[in-house]
Amino acid sequence: MPAARAFAREALADWGVRGRADDVVLCVSELATNALLHGVPPGRGFLLRLWLLPCGDGVRVEVHDSGDGVPAVPLESGGSDEGGRGLLLVSELADKWGVAEREPGKVVWFECGVPAD
After folding, report:
1. For residue 115, is pLDDT > 90?
2. If pLDDT is split at 50, 70 and 90, which confidence band does 55 have?
3. Does residue 50 have a pLDDT over 70?
4. Where is the Histidine kinase/HSP90-like ATPase domain positioned along the sequence (predicted)?
5. Per-residue CA distances from 34 to 30, 56, 67, 90 (Å)
6. Which letter, b or e, does each residue of 26-63 get, where b requires 16 or more Cβ atoms within 10 Å of its Cβ?
7. pLDDT computed for residue 74 by the predictor
8. How far is CA 24 from CA 42, 73, 87, in A?
9. Contact in structure between 57 and 115 (CB atoms under 8 Å)
10. Cβ count within 10 A of residue 99
11. Does the CA dihedral 100-6-57-22 come out positive or negative?
């Protein structure tokens, strides 16, 4: 997910957002990875959108994909399995997150309060 991380980091820098930028970029990486692994058929991509919230006191990120199903935070985070922790990270780092329907597929989004410098 280097391209998604770079896009997010550049947008945040352009907006003068420094606080929690690493959290936002990590969440972008996790959602983009999930979209590629679980949300799009081979050969298809996903849409990544970032924007400042009204009053400029936060950022909203959306990852649109064409996959079905509703992602959920795993009930247990233990064990040695490396997968399944992306949404757990997003749920811990973001102020809010959720899933919305779209045709086809879904939008997984999060918001973080990140005041501009």
Report:
1. no
2. confident
3. yes
4. 2-110
5. 6, 28, 10, 11
6. bbbbbbbbbbbeebbeeeeebebebebeeeeebbbbbb
7. 79
8. 27, 18, 13
9. yes
10. 13
11. positive
Amino acid at 74: P
Region 89-110: mean pLDDT is: 94
- 8 Å CB contact between 69 and 63: no
Domain borders along the chain are: 2-112
Residues 91, 29, 44, 110, CA torsion sign:
positive
In words, the CATH class of domain 2-112 is alpha beta
End-to-end Cα distance, the chain: 27
**What Cα–Cα distance (Å) separates residue 88 from each residue in 16, 18, 32, 103?**
28, 23, 14, 26
Q: How far apart are CA 109 and CA 94, in angstroms?
A: 10
The contacts of residue 29 (CB under 8 Å, 6+ apart) are 1, 4, 5
- Per-residue confidence (pLDDT) for residue 78, from 0 to 100: 57
Cβ–Cβ < 8 Å for 99, 90: no
